[in-house]
Amino acid sequence: MFMTKISRRTFIGGSAAMAALLSTPEWAMALITQPYPRVKIANIKDLKVGEPVSFNYPDEQSPAILIKLGEKADGGVGPEGDIVAYSSICTHMGCPVVYSNKRFVCACHYSMFDPAKNGETFQGHASEWIPQVILRFEPRTGNIYAEGVEGLIWGRIRNILKSSKISNL
Ligand code: FES
Question: What is the pTM of this model?
């Protein structure tokens, strides 16, 4: 029988890590452990600078916007690192945001978010950054895939609802 010797230090460290994990709120655990779908959003040849592409991710109830900014962005993909995507639900009270002139704008109370800086809020009532969709660019085909979400989508306790599905998988 194979046995591994565990030192007291390793055991205590492991116990502390396990205790921290067990005390993590359910919504935070869900963000860490949720398996996100990999979904093709667009091909780079179809994108034009400043023209947003609407899609749903990680499920049909979660509207999002992909945009080629024309300048390098935090978390951007593609040859210029300028393609980003975000939830299009405002983090203040859930109104839709639209892309306009290099920013996301919420018409309800005029919060604004910077798509070049991970969705940072820079004006208005929203205190939380707008969740950024994690993208992957495949150079061989030019396809752009969504693979996750950083941040909690407004109104949710987890980004992936147990009963939700997305049709374009
Ligand atoms: Fe967007 Fe209030 S809902 S600023």
Answer: 0.80
